[in-house]
Amino acid sequence: MAAISLHSSYGLLSSRTSSMEPTATSLNTCTVQQPRAALGRLHMLLHFFAVSALLYYRISNLIHGSVPLLSWGLITLSELVFAFIWTLAQAFRWRPVVRTVAPENLPGDEKLPALDVFICTADPKKEPVVEVMNTVLSAMALDYPTEKAVVYLSDDGGAAVTLYAMKEACAFARSWLPFCRKYGVKSRALRHSSPLFVMMRGRFWRVMNSRRKKIKSSQIMNFSREMWRRQLRLRIPWTTTALLVLRLVIYDNKNNEGAKDDHSKLPLLVYMSREKRPSRPHRFKAGALNALLRVSGIMSNAPYTLVLDCDMYCNDPTSAKQAMCFHLDPKFSDTLSFVQFPQIFYNISKNDIYDGQARSAYKTKYQGMDGIKGTVCAGTGYFLKKKALYCSPNQEDEFLEEPEKNFGFSTKLIDSLQALTGKNVRERENLSDATIEEAKKLASCTYEQNTRWGKDIGYSYDCLLESTFTGYLLHCKGWTSVYLYPERPCFLGCTTIDMKDALIQLMKWASGLVQAGLSKFSPLTYGMSKMSALQSMCYGYFMFTHLFSIACLLYGIVPQLSFLYGVPLYPKVTNPWFAVFAAVFLSSLSQHIYEVVSSGGSMRTMWNEQRIWMIKSVTACLFGCFDVLMKYVGMAKANFRLTNKAIDQEKLDKYEKGKFDFQGAKMFMIPLTVLVLLNLGCFIGGMKGLISGGDVKEMFGQGFLSSYVLVLSLPILEGLIPKIGK
């Protein structure tokens, strides 16, 4: 049998437990951030009373007062949406935790479980090959037993340049990785230089640069499938991506037997390009990950896997052992599905203006969700227990009932799945031709037909955000997860540096999350019945937060037009109710400042987040919600939009100077431009009205709102004026 397993008997580790107070042999610790939690709950209570008073004022005046029904009704609707999203967000603040690990307390390397690394790429133009190879190189350099580590690269683009580059990267790794291990170099991806070894590393840089030139020259040639087909002298149908590459195991770690020492050993390296046909759905990245699960099942069958975006390289080789501090802890191991590391980007400028993630706030949200049985899966930089994708906790035999119906007719794959439960465990064999042929079958576009792949098995196909949605379903099944934020970033990625790419990426997220939130899997209905209310609220926030766009659109039109025509929407400054509105504004602003500063940010970071929040709310999020509506009425279909990771020098220069670049983002700029110009015109007209005899006390609230938006819009106007001049 070719069914194989890299399982190791590492014992129960019963003495190694996780607790609030670390012991001499503890693998990890968990500390509740008590001051932050207490302060958050106090603020939550005070803000709740202020928001309740504000809504009471709005609704009571709308029902019983003599106010303009249309303008007051729209502004009340927007404030109800704000209140709804704010309520969901409070679950993150209930019990924030911080975790630490002690990898030195792990058992010896011979007792560590095996680990697969999954890396996915799809387009060498949008995902530069050099960046992909950097990720592959860093994954091969993990501080983990090489005989228990396997690196898989899935290339959905089927690009010959990617295959060629992988061979070149492997050749370079044979010289570079032994050097890193010998001298303890941590930054093993070729991005940062160490002062201690700059001369030695310079030699390797020259080698790699020569290989980069080869890769780039090949990339310029722009291989088409037809050219690739002739090059390989094969007759492959035009509708088929070449599966022959599955037999190209770039490096088999069985060759390590002749290595002089452990420093010279490399892990198994496999390139996979699955079959894709226009007549068959290929399910985008989720389909690629499921194909990797099947292929790896018969080639290495490690119980754990690290999933990485192709541009997210390993910055700390000890990340795998840090994750194992949770996976091997008996207190977690029965129900733990994945360990999530933060997404941190190496190319963020100090003048970063495209921080659409509001990363300081997201750190606090991830830590807050970690305190209530599991954080969200970010899609990259997480160590996953494969078994979690097949069954519920403590029900290992569940997925082995009717295995052919669930997993397909592959006896080798079914044998490998039995090994995940500790049954029929086999030592790894040399990769045979029969194993390679079976791998081709498992990666074919017809294998999943009439199976449960993408439904109950593997990554879900119900949402284009496959990892986030699959993580949500895992929590619904009873699995848990943890979030580890170490001092040294374990993974570093490349973020978008121009407005167009940032907004396209955000629109994809908004569309996928809102669609999931409105589906039968909504966290407010389905989730509430499967997990705790607090955890459901957290997922509800992620899925419904983009509805902010509707409220922001109304807030960007109604108060401004009312200010222009002298229609009051807020109480007079001398009215006690004005203090309620002022309290809500100042309370929200102070909370944002606290989250930014406590996460290591500055006031400039806070101001940039305010600006990008306004921009994304009326552009990408709005288009994402509109895209969901189009799908529901049948006017659009699901479409995967690959984020462009290629760097343009002109855009990079503008980004580093903190300037907005709207080039190529015409579609997104229409609502933003209209709202900015509308606000400017209404502000000028409204101020003229006040100067000519208007009631300043009555219109102060709208005037302040319009001026605040105007100040936020100044960089946007700077970006629009040169474009208008052209």
TrEMBL record:
Compartments where found: Endomembrane system
GO biological process terms on file: cell wall organization; cellulose biosynthetic process
Transmembrane segments: 38-57, 69-89, 538-557, 577-597, 667-687, 699-721
A Pfam family this chain is assigned to: Cellulose_synt
Gene Ontology, cellular component aspect: endomembrane system; membrane
One term of GO molecular function: cellulose synthase (UDP-forming) activity
Entry binding sites for Mn(2+): 285, 309
Keywords, comma-separated and alphabetical: Cell wall biogenesis/degradation, Glycosyltransferase, Membrane, Transferase, Transmembrane, Transmembrane helix
Membrane topology qualifier: Multi-pass membrane protein
Residues annotated for UDP-alpha-D-glucose binding in this entry: 126-127, 156
PANTHER family membership: X-BOX TRANSCRIPTION FACTOR-RELATED
Name of this protein: Cellulose synthase-like protein G3
Classification lineage: Eukaryota, Viridiplantae, Streptophyta, Embryophyta, Tracheophyta
